[in-house]
């Protein structure tokens, strides 16, 4: 698929138009950003593993009836995806209380509750992505009731499926951010952003060692080696299916 002009440049990704108006190519940069851009580094190879892991997981979701934007890998740092109309809501699904929620609720990072918590944030940098729930989304016209129901359903199913997959690979999915869009080819709701160590927290199941972007956020080192480890563990599970 021929790559054309840049449609969007983010901190960690580039989105290119293609010769097909319903498809884009997403390029994962070797850049890590945290704390709203306060911390930034170039990490050689990060884009390769974020791209590969995202492809693995989005393909698993596609194969299990959870539609995503992923079509196919097209390069080391690139994948072909369905074009979407963005729905500006971030869904955060949490199996443990970690990160910003642990701070907000005053519990230790990684607090286990036995409950899955789903949060929604209105994706607006100027407003610092405020917390919202369905009523706010409806009032702002961000999505219809049916669309919200569908996004909640897909988020719950994706979380269950990926928890099981990660467990088979000796890892625990602590939390994950999902974004959705309306596919421009048929208008359906699909998962429309990467699912990678940049957007989830993942621990080694036995040692609780952090394998995800917290390694960068907290200066734990070996970020790219850890992303490669995640990729290899998932690949092994998928090979033995
Ligand atoms: O830091 P916080 O607890 O809000 O993050 C929850 C999860 O969502 C983490 O896995 C984090 O990497 C992800 N996240 C994200 N993009 C954001 C905010 C959070 O991928 N803008």
Tags for this model:
241 residues, binds cytidine-5'-monophosphate, single chain, 32% helix, alpha+beta, six-stranded antiparallel β-sheet, five-stranded antiparallel β-sheet, 36% strand, globular
What does this structure look like?
This protein is α+β, with helices and mostly antiparallel strands and 241 residues long. Helix content is 32%, strand content 36%. It contains 6 helices and 13 strands. The chain has helices spanning 46-63, 99-105, 134-139, 145-168, 214-217, 223-239, and strands at residues 3-9, 13-18, 23-28, 31-34, 39-42, 70-75, 78-82, 84-97, 111-122, 131-132, 171-183, 189-191, 200-204. Strands 8, 9, 10, 11, 12 and 13 form a 6-stranded antiparallel beta sheet that branches. α1 (46-63) packs parallel to α6 (223-239). The longest helix has 24 residues, at 145-168. The radius of gyration is 17 Å and the shape is globular. The two termini are 30 Å apart. The mean pLDDT is 97.
Q: Per the principal axes of the C-alpha atoms, what is the gross shape?
A: globular
How would a textbook summarize the main sheet? Answer: 6 strands, antiparallel
Bound molecules: cytidine-5'-monophosphate
Summed over residues and divided by their number, the pLDDT gives a mean of 97
Task: Give the uncertain stretches in residue-range form.
Answer: none
Task: Name the helix and strand elements from N-terminus to C-terminus, one letter apiece.
Answer: EEEEEHEEEHEEHHEEEHH
Structural class: alpha+beta
How far apart, in Å, are the first and last alpha carbons?
Answer: 30 Å
Beta-strand percentage range: 35-45%
User: Over the alpha carbons, how many angstroms does the gyration radius reach?
Assistant: 17 Å
Q: How many extended strands?
A: 13
Count, helices: 6
State the helicity in percent bands: 25-40%
